[in-house]
């Protein structure tokens, strides 16, 4: 056991130390703005880098390479341990905040869920709000993908971690011969769009702190805001337009963006099998919900209905989670439809959550194939995606994934209901956290926070976020007895 | 269910600390229930007198109630606390608000 754990802890130490370095950004902001959180960032940086280096020093003599199986455990450890260090600035700055709530907040940040337990965001120091949003940026494409991109040392066994963390069913797709180059390329494209989003927000009238927070939040499809009223604070159709455009970009496969950049062509977008469905379903839902809200007299004119329906539908469907209206007050159908969309709308390889559009398309095609089989039992039918035949192995994996996904929602909802939460809140909280969306309905609606949950319920939701971000299997495999057998 | 209802529910359930009182006060402030907001901010400050954000919002709630002398006093104490914590940004903001409160007093 010790032999197995030491090389994992060695890499974990490096990752923690590297994560500590990213904490320097809010520290610099805090120093520059002379805000009240300086000591919180100071101490958090020291504790994080110190712990990472200490762990690495203890284990540095071990030279064993990571195996495929180690990748799963390492990824789970990274995603459970980093929120502890990420929580330090919050715990030091807000001494009344419990560890449970602080861990939930940072898990929500890193998994790009955007569910918050904090209120009074408008009066938090800028550096704390930037740190919360920075967690979205780091978690967006994945901490591991980032580490693989910037730390060639992790090339050893890195492929296993990369595969264990990367969202979507087609994890073996090679964009470049070397995985480090792929990871670096994806991050460069991601940072480019984030910079563009920041500039657009800034030119659109946001202050620079708000622009940084919301650019990180939008591109990571997270949902943390620096205002209690979320995006409604700005009350600006222009800024809302910018946010939804970038949210739609972030909900697309970054491999497609990467190829489009490299080829300097729109061709990769045209042949992306998920993209047309993603845009059709999300934009079609905006129009449908706008008509519904107008018809239900929620808004007096169609254009106002279109504005609020579009922003909130795109926000929830892409799992961004920012809100410019309390959609909890809309007729139930609207909120439930939006939560349904967040379960599958975003593309594989995007920063969004849910089961991903690619799996939904495969499931649809598999159902259609079964129907045709009933009519033509001897036909040899192939499922194709983007013109490429999909093997039965992938189809079975997707079916198993869907089963686990639904079972997880049912089980976790029952756990929350048994702990005393009402059915609607429990179900929406699980759907909103497992899909890394953020706001749910009823007691955890967009106008309120998750602070109302008990400690136990908060831990269940933290687990749900992690389960969703690691796409179920990576976390569940570590919990099986077979994983721990020699 | 609104955030205000949620926080009231948490308080009724016995979860009481400076952060919750501050959050509740903030929601009362948004709902323009200024007297109740003041009570909550004062309760938050009873838990933690060094809570500069609570002093700032207490000053604001008192301003909205037209209690300018009390608002100026809240800002004065808030500035002291913020300066002691090195929170230059908050101290600067409260200094501006305090000037406004004193100006109102002068005109009154």
Automatic annotation (TrEMBL), chain A:
<dbReference type="GO" id="GO:0046872">
    <property type="term" value="F:metal ion binding"/>
</dbReference>
<comment type="similarity">
    <text>Belongs to the TrkH potassium transport family.</text>
</comment>
<feature type="binding site">
    <location>
        <position position="221"/>
    </location>
    <ligand>
        <name>K(+)</name>
    </ligand>
</feature>
<feature type="binding site">
    <location>
        <position position="112"/>
    </location>
    <ligand>
        <name>K(+)</name>
    </ligand>
</feature>
<feature type="transmembrane region" description="Helical">
    <location>
        <begin position="277"/>
        <end position="295"/>
    </location>
</feature>
<dbReference type="GO" id="GO:0015379">
    <property type="term" value="F:potassium:chloride symporter activity"/>
</dbReference>
<feature type="transmembrane region" description="Helical">
    <location>
        <begin position="329"/>
        <end position="349"/>
    </location>
</feature>
<keyword id="KW-1003">Cell membrane</keyword>
<comment type="function">
    <text>Low-affinity potassium transport system. Interacts with Trk system potassium uptake protein TrkA.</text>
</comment>
<keyword id="KW-0812">Transmembrane</keyword>
<feature type="transmembrane region" description="Helical">
    <location>
        <begin position="241"/>
        <end position="261"/>
    </location>
</feature>
<dbReference type="InterPro" id="IPR004772">
    <property type="entry name" value="TrkH"/>
</dbReference>
<keyword id="KW-0630">Potassium</keyword>
<feature type="binding site">
    <location>
        <position position="113"/>
    </location>
    <ligand>
        <name>K(+)</name>
    </ligand>
</feature>
<feature type="transmembrane region" description="Helical">
    <location>
        <begin position="133"/>
        <end position="154"/>
    </location>
</feature>
<feature type="binding site">
    <location>
        <position position="222"/>
    </location>
    <ligand>
        <name>K(+)</name>
    </ligand>
</feature>
<dbReference type="GO" id="GO:0005886">
    <property type="term" value="C:plasma membrane"/>
</dbReference>
<feature type="binding site">
    <location>
        <position position="436"/>
    </location>
    <ligand>
        <name>K(+)</name>
    </ligand>
</feature>
<keyword id="KW-0633">Potassium transport</keyword>
<dbReference type="InterPro" id="IPR003445">
    <property type="entry name" value="Cat_transpt"/>
</dbReference>
<protein>
    <recommendedName>
        <fullName>Trk system potassium uptake protein</fullName>
    </recommendedName>
</protein>
<feature type="transmembrane region" description="Helical">
    <location>
        <begin position="187"/>
        <end position="209"/>
    </location>
</feature>
From TrEMBL, chain B:
<feature type="repeat" description="TPR">
    <location>
        <begin position="52"/>
        <end position="85"/>
    </location>
</feature>
<feature type="repeat" description="TPR">
    <location>
        <begin position="18"/>
        <end position="51"/>
    </location>
</feature>
<dbReference type="InterPro" id="IPR019734">
    <property type="entry name" value="TPR_rpt"/>
</dbReference>
<dbReference type="InterPro" id="IPR011990">
    <property type="entry name" value="TPR-like_helical_dom_sf"/>
</dbReference>
<keyword id="KW-0802">TPR repeat</keyword>
<protein>
    <submittedName>
        <fullName>Tetratricopeptide repeat protein</fullName>
    </submittedName>
</protein>
<dbReference type="Pfam" id="PF13432">
    <property type="entry name" value="TPR_16"/>
</dbReference>
């Amino acid at each position: 056991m010790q032999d197995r754990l030491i090389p994992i802890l060695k890499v974990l130490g490096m990752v923690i130390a590297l994560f500590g370095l990213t904490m320097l950004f809010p520290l610099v902001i805090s120093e520059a703005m002379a805000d009240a959180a300086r000591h919180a960032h100071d101490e958090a940086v020291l504790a994080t880098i110190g712990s990472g280096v200490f762990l690495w020093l203890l284990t540095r003599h071990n030279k064993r390479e990571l195996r495929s199986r180690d990748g799963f455990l390492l990824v789970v450890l990274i995603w459970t341990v980093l929120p502890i260090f990420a929580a330090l600035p919050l715990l030091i700055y807000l001494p009344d905040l419990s560890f449970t709530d602080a861990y939930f907040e940072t898990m929500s940040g890193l998994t790009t869920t955007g569910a918050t337990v904090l209120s009074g965001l408008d009066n938090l120091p800028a550096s704390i709000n930037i740190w919360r949003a920075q967690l979205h940026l780091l978690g967006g494409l994945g901490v591991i993908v980032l580490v693989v991109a910037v730390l060639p040392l992790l090339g050893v066994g890195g492929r296993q971690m990369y595969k264990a963390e990367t969202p979507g069913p087609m994890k073996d797709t090679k964009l470049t011969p070397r995985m480090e180059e792929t990871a670096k390329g994806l991050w460069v494209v991601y940072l480019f769009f984030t910079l563009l989003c920041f500039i657009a927000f800034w030119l659109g009238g946001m202050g620079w702190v708000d622009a940084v927070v919301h650019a990180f939040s939008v591109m990571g499809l997270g949902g943390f805001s620096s205002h209690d009223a979320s995006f409604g604070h700005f009350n600006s159709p222009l800024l809302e337009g910018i946010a939804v455009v970038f949210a739609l970009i972030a909900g697309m496969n970054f491999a497609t963006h990467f190829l489009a950049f490299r080829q300097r062509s729109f061709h990769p977008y045209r042949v992306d099998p998920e993209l047309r469905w993603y845009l059709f379903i999300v934009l079609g839902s905006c129009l449908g919900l706008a008509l519904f809200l107008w018809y239900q007299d929620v808004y007096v004119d169609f254009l106002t209905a279109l504005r609020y329906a579009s922003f909130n539908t795109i926000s929830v469907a892409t799992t961004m989670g920012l809100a410019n209206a309390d959609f909890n007050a809309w007729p139930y159908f609207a909120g439930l439809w939006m939560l349904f969309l967040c379960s599958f709308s975003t593309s594989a390889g995007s920063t969004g959550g849910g089961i991903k559009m690619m799996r939904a398309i495969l499931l649809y095609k598999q159902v259609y194939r079964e129907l045709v089989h009933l009519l033509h039992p001897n036909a040899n039918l192939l499922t194709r995606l983007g013109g490429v035949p999909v093997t039965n192995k992938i189809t079975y994996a997707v079916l198993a994934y869907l089963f686990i996904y639904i079972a997880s929602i049912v089980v976790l909802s029952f756990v929350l209901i048994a702990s005393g939460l009402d059915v609607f809140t429990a179900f929406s909280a699980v759907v909103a956290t497992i899909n890394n969306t953020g706001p749910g309905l009823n007691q955890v609606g967009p106008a309120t926070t998750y602070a109302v949950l008990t400690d136990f319920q908060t831990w269940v939701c933290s687990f749900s976020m992690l389960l969703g971000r690691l796409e179920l299997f990576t976390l569940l495999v570590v919990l099986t007895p077979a994983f721990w057998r020699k | 269910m609104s955030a205000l209802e949620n926080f009231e529910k948490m308080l009724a359930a016995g979860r009481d600390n400076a952060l919750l009182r501050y959050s509740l006060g903030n929601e009362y402030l948004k709902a323009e229930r200024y007297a109740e907001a003041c009570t909550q901010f004062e309760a938050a400050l009873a838990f933690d007198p060094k809570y500069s954000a609570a002093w700032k919002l207490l000053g604001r709630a008192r301003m909205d109630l037209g209690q300018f002398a009390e608002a100026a006093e809240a800002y004065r104490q808030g500035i002291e606390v913020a300066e002691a914590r090195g929170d230059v940004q908050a101290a600067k903001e409260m200094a501006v608000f305090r000037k406004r409160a004193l100006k109102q007093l002068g005109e009154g």
